[in-house]
Design brief:
Bound molecules: pyridoxal-5'-phosphate
Number of strands: 13
Structural class: alpha/beta
CATH architecture of the largest domain: 3-Layer(aba) Sandwich
Distance between the termini: 22 Å
Strand content: 15-25%
CATH topology of the largest domain: Aspartate Aminotransferase, domain 2
Strand order of the largest sheet: 2-8-7-6-5-3-4
Number of helices: 14
Order of helices and strands: EHHEHEHHEHEHEHHEEHHHEEHEEEH
Largest sheet: 7 strands, mixed
């Protein structure tokens, strides 16, 4: 048995998902003739109450296309210091959009409307023009922390007042929806664009969708081609996404319960300094100085448990479709033996 806690992207399609993929009706999507891709885009848009959707090969591409739809070179993007769009997308905001970034030092990825107000540039020729705010929900580096609906609403109000666009990096928005109990439509009503990942907790092999109004998605489609992301018979992949939206959202709560169990075990270990509260499917924890991160990961690897380092003295565990209860029992036993 191998327990792979490195990421919720490591899942393989289930037999039923594979059946759905094999049965997909496909066509050339660059000619807009792949009915399964069109169906996925329509379905995802309807779920969030948005006009249109655009299927993309990755979450990174989806975020970067959405950002490019909102900003021009020398504009400025406001986001949290922990944001994926800033840290893990290869400097894409500078590369693709030529924009600068103003970083908010939030609390595990969550910041306030007042923070945004503080960071909006004054109308003065010395400063870049503030154009876009990005929220990440759940926040990966924040240990899967969720935003409250009201916190997002307050950011939207500030954006409306100051003519800023608002983008949601919703790679794990379904985890937040399941944990907090707000609806996809409530979330959809707050943002100009949303990116959702099908290949994280939802368990599809590939794919993300950008959601927005018709005009923005038309522009996004142009950029997707420009970025080299126009796909042909992509319906085989889109079918996995449709299957995931139909079957794998509710079950995310199982991942959350398993992450909570890991959090509880970790909190009992004498070599653990701090565990971020595990709200969803991610557990981030810091080891005490006497436990070296690489040694810790090595000891787990020897017991067939895979995990990743997550900054100085920190480790991340992610639960997902391919982690079951007996695996959590096993990990708990191994953690105890390391004490
Ligand atoms: C995984 C992830 C993405 C997209 O990543 P890809 O690997 O490019 O699909 C975007 N934002 C967050 C918060 C993520 O965790």
């Amino acid at each position: 048995m191998i327990v792979d806690l490195r990421s919720d992207t490591v899942t393989k399609p289930t037999p039923n998902m594979l059946d759905a993929m094999m049965a997909a009706k496909v066509g050339d999507d660059v000619f807009e003739e792949d009915e399964t891709v069109l169906q996925l885009e329509k379905k995802a848009a309807a779920l969030f109450g948005k006009e249109s959707g655009l299927f993309c090969p990755s979450g990174t591409m989806a975020n970067q296309i959405a950002i490019k739809c909102h900003v021009q070179p020398a504009d400025e993007v406001i986001c949290d210091i922990s944001a994926h769009v800033y840290n893990y997308e290869g400097g894409g905001i500078a590369f693709h959009s030529g924009a600068s970034v103003r970083l908010i030092y939030g609390d595990r990825g969550v910041f306030t409307a007042q923070d945004v107000l503080n960071y909006i540039q004054p109308d003065n020729i010395h400063y870049p023009v503030s154009k876009l705010v990005c929220i990440e929900n759940t926040c990966n580096r924040g240990g899967g922390r969720c935003w409250e609906l009201q916190e997002m609403q307050q950011i939207k109000d500030v954006c409306d007042k100051h003519q800023l666009k608002l983008h949601l990096d919703g790679a794990r928005i379904f985890n937040a929806i399941i944990h907090k109990g707000y609806s996809a439509k409530e979330v959809g009503s707050l943002f100009d664009t949303i990116s959702i990942c099908l290949s994280k907790g939802l368990g599809a092999p590939v794919g993300s969708v950008i959601l927005g109004d018709k005009e923005t998605i038309k522009t996004a489609k142009r950029y997707r081609k420009l970025f080299g992301g126009g796909m042909r018979q992509a319906g085989y992949l889109a079918a996995a996404g449709i299957y995931a939206l139909d079957n794998h959202i509710e079950r995310l709560k199982e991942d959350h319960i398993r992450a909570k169990r890991l959090e509880e075990s970790l909190n009992k270990m004498n070599y653990v300094a701090e565990v971020f509260p595990a709200e969803t499917n991610i557990v981030v924890f810091r080891l005490k100085p006497e436990m070296n991160v690489n040694d810790f990961l090595q000891k787990l690897a020897e017991k067939n448990i895979k995990a990743v380092g997550f900054g100085p003295q920190a480790v991340r565990f992610a639960t997902h479709l391919d982690v079951n209860d007996s695996m959590i029992d096993y990990v708990t036993e191994v953690l105890k033996k390391l004490a």
